[in-house]
Amino acid sequence: MKTLLKIRAIFISIYKNNEVLTNMLLKFILTFISIFSIDSVTNISSTMLVLIIAVSFSLVSIILSVDIILICLMMLILFIISKAGLVLTSIVGAIFIMSYVLYIRLFSKEVILIFFTMLLIPSGAVYLVPLVGALFFGFGASGAIAVGYVFYNIFIQLNTLMSQDLSAFTVPNIYLIVSTFLENTIYNEKMLVSIAILTIVFLVVYLIRILSIAYAPYVAIFFGSIINIFGFLLAQMLINLDLNIIVIVSATISCALIAFFVSFMSRVLDYTKTQVVQFEDETNYYFVKVIPKIETSSKANQLQQAYMPLQMDINNTNKEL
User: Which residues are 269's β-sheet partners?
Assistant: First the structure.
């Protein structure tokens, strides 16, 4: 166990010493992957041009905050779909503005969970978002899951809508776009159930994590994983959704293991083990917090006899005197 604690301390020390570079690299990777995901749906241009755009935009993103990066990507999407007509651009732009006003501007730090939600949905690893996100963010971060799902389900419909002739500003075109978005968001039972279950998982993990109990983060991840599995199992039984329970269980277990690892590596000490000693005298109250160390070691002190010849000369001089 001490070996694991030492390894963890080394990794945390490396991260703290290179925190700025690590965060910049993370933003570069997120932006790079996001642009290629946008290209996979909208077909921006040739692969070489997309690569140049992705690298250039990603380099700029390393000095930007995550919420500004998301806003820039929104503007990029609007610019790309503008060739499909004013109707589609206006409706998507209205959705982006509404999302910014209602959530993004209020929870700018939690925007990174929107990125992870959108990127992890296709791989089935989206269960990692509530299990890990609740360990580092507060109650408001649960809304990032809903925003990420809405953005993803709108995003995957853009290719179909852009392939149709919707340039004319007519009622049928507006109805087609709005109905397509509504069918894949508000009227999409699978998406609504997923948002509800993952939000509950997030809240459970968060509420257990903030408790003053031993190993609270690990207990929170365990119960969150159980609720995630039983939540989707109950949805399959009651609503009869097209869900693969075996895949959900295996993905949840894998995400839980990753969450355990992240929780372990992100904490230097288990501060739930701290003890507060309180006592008083005639004039003061005293509060002493006792925190256990990972390892205590004592090094033997060696006495160097570098000045022994000088000491001997002094003794000889004294004898002569």
Answer: none
Statement: the pTM of the whole predicted model exceeds 0.90 = no
Is residue 132 within 8 A of residue 144, CB to CB? The reply is no
pLDDT band at 310 (very low <50, low <70, confident <90, very high): very low
- d(C-alpha 280, C-alpha 216), whole Å: 31
Contact 157, 181 (CB under 8 A): yes
Per the structure block, which two tokens stand in for 22? 């690590």
Residue for token digits 């609740």?
134
Q: Which residues pair with 276 in a beta bridge?
A: 289
DSSP class per residue in 135-184 = HHS-GGGHHHHHHHHHHHHHHTTHHHHHTS---S--HHHHHHHHHHHHHH
Pairing mode of beta strands 285-290, 275-280:
antiparallel
Complete DSSP assignment for 299-311? PPP----TTHHHH
Amino acid symbol at 244: N
SS3 assignment, position 126: coil
244-253 pLDDT tens trace: 889 999 999 9
Q: What gap in Å lies between CA 148 and CA 285, rounded to an integer? A: 50
| C-beta of residue 128 within 8 angstroms of C-beta of residue 115 | no
The helix/strand/coil state of 290 is strand
Q: DSSP assignment, residue 300?
A: P
